[in-house]
Write a structure and sequence with these properties.
- By secondary structure, the chain is mainly alpha-helical.
- It folds into 2 domains: 6-65; 99-183.
- The protein contains 6 helices and no strands.
- Helix 1 packs antiparallel against helix 2 and helix 3 runs antiparallel to helix 4 (113-127).
- The radius of gyration is 22 Å and the shape is extended.
- The N and C termini lie far apart (48 Å).
């Protein structure tokens, strides 16, 4: 059986069972949606099929190569760094990493996804140590555009718009722009 071990087979079986069980549960909410031709189960089933393909690809890779790390691969030969908290700065950074997503989640309803997300992306980049303004703005803009394209164009998923005046107006502007672009058949 190549370089497969029992743990490889168990891992594959567990992931396979997860896919099968969730695919079975998807029939419980299989309804047509007026604005989406694939119905309520279109994206969940697509993700499950992708997960099954990744599981099979991992099994094939393990069959050919086993679990041995590749020489020259990033992180394979380096020991894990031990986390030490010796100063107040270390604790404050940990607190900022843990509290940031919580604050983002709390502000999501009043401020909205469309306005708050670029600030959250920038916040995370700065917390993890980046100081170059060009890099922060470039990565933030790129990730924000990818998220907008994914949720507004590909998934056509409703996101929190916010319910406070300037934030709601920004969200409404983006949604109106998206609708106008779709009517022009650009998307």
């Amino acid at each position: 059986m190549g370089r497969l071990t029992t743990s490889h087979i168990i891992e594959t079986v567990v992931w396979g069972l997860i896919v099968i069980i969730f695919f079975g549960f998807s029939f419980e909410f299989d309804r047509e949606i007026e604005i989406y031709k694939f119905g309520a189960t279109g994206w969940p089933r697509t993700i499950l099929i992708l997960l099954a393909l990744v599981t099979l690809g991992n099994l094939f890779h393990l069959y050919r190569n086993g679990s041995i790390g590749e020489a020259g691969r990033v992180g394979q030969s380096e020991p894990d760094d031990e986390m030490t908290y010796n100063s107040l700065r270390d604790y404050s950074k940990l607190l900022a990493i843990l509290i940031g997503p919580l604050i983002y989640a709390i502000l999501l309803k009043p401020v909205g996804f469309y306005f708050l997300t670029p600030f959250f992306i920038s916040y995370i980049i700065v917390i993890f140590g980046e100081r170059s303004l060009k890099f922060i703005l470039g990565v933030t803009l790129l990730l924000y555009l990818i998220l907008l394209l994914l949720f507004m164009v590909v998934l056509n998923a409703p996101l929190p718009q916010g319910n406070m005046s300037p934030f709601y107006d920004y969200s409404a502007f983006l949604l109106k722009l998206n609708t106008q672009l779709k009517q022009l058949s650009i998307w």
